[in-house]
Amino acid sequence: MAIAKPVRFLGALSVVLFFFLIYQYLRPVPTIQPPGTVTGNGDKIENWEQDPLLEPIGEPPEPLWRHTDHDYTPDSVNSARINATLLSLVRNEELQDLIPTMKQLEETWNSKFNYPWTFFNDVPFTDEFKEQTQAVTKAKCSYHVIPKEHWEMPSWVSEELYQESAKILKENDVQYAGLKSYHQMCRWNSGMFYRHPALEATQYYWRVEPKVKFFCHVDYDVFRYMQDHNKTYGFNINLFDSPESIPSLWPETIKFLASHPDYLHKNNAMAWLVDNNRRPDNNIKAHGYSTCHFWSNFEIADMSFWRSQAYEDYFTHLDRTGGFFYERWGDAPVHSIALGLFEDASKIHWYGRQLLGLLRLTNDRFKDIGYNHIPFYNCPNSPKCSGCTPGQFYGGEPWLQREDCRPLWFKYVGMG
Ligand code: GDP
Ligand code: MN
Predict the structure, then answer these.
(1) CA 264 – ligand 2 centroid, Å
(2) Which of 71, 139, 206, 255 is at a distance of 20 to 30 A from 159, taking alpha carbons?
(3) Each residue's pLDDT tens digit, 213-229
(4) Which residue has a Cα nearest atom 23 of ligand 1?
(5) Kindly report the CA angle at 404 between 98 and 103, in degrees rounded to 5?
(6) Does the annotation count 299 as an active-site position?
(7) Residue 79 CB contacts under 8 Å (≥ 6 apart), including other chains
(8) Which CATH class is domain 84-357+387-412?
(9) Pocket of ligand 1 (CB under 6 A)
């Protein structure tokens, strides 16, 4: 019996498509070589850093069905912008350190997308601050004072005990131990910023500090990427912390987990949090925590996580202990521990290199955001970047290399 021509054609087409899809899934994709692997040119990979950080990178592809002609003009009513903001807690005195940072981020990224800037301060911003910051961006800037109840030392923390504790922390060389505002800043960044009324209707933020540098031209909408790929948190530097600043943070976390075992996500990053191989001293001094954390002066994140019941309960538990003042808990380890325990590890994204692509059609393209906050770098190997050395991790003393914790993240969680 003769088969109609169109049917034969469709049959042939689906066979071709079938084999094409099989090919796409089976063909080799660049992967991270584990230590000990001998590469094609005979080099032995000695450590985890060597390979991934030097791999050439580019941009993630837009999914095929999307077009790149989104409307990002500053005041468009039909704007393609995601519900997001650039966010900065900053002092008036830091204006001259902030301006070059803003200019860099505008030039490399935001001038294409015009995301609004939201500035926070514990005292009112000066007119000079407002004028000079607004002058470097077409996007809208807004300026907000932090309510006292979000910033001041909470009533249950004893001033006297704080002063005594600060002396001990100082003896242990904990940086900024005696600077009360630093403790306040860490607490605010840990559990307060996303409660500010100015952010009530905002979902994503990109945290920016004065003095930091951005090295790469980034041509995709990073917030759209977060949303499209269902990411909660993006980081680019992973460091060991000073265990002397957080001796009871992990023990308090364990206590919290004991009473809320259901908050632990089944795809958590516990192994990354408790590693004791690479820096055993840190783990001992922090009583079971590797001290490995996302360096939070750079973070691109979805505030829904901070606003979740799990994080709310965790932060409240920590805050009640007074540890933000009696010790010097940073927002970086607090955020990192919470993400590592309560979030799906696959929703945490490294802005360094990312395999991507619908059907892996474009598996040779990667993404990245080159970054520096003294003294550490994330410096990708890409023609889009300039001003840092590809693969460079620190500026200054060579011992700083020891602080790199990314290899642990790659080992336990991966690079996806
Ligand atoms: P480091 O990166 O840990 O050395 O801390 P920074 O001094 O850079 O502070 C972290 C961020 O908080 C920066 O954006 C500072 O501008 C900001 N910051 C720190 N302390 C204060 C403060 O007392 N008031 C305000 N408004 N901002 C602060
Ligand atoms: Mn800083």
Answers:
(1) 31
(2) 255
(3) 999 999 889 999 999 99
(4) 181
(5) 20
(6) yes
(7) 71, 72, 73
(8) alpha beta
(9) 89-91, 94, 121-122, 181-182, 185, 209-210, 297
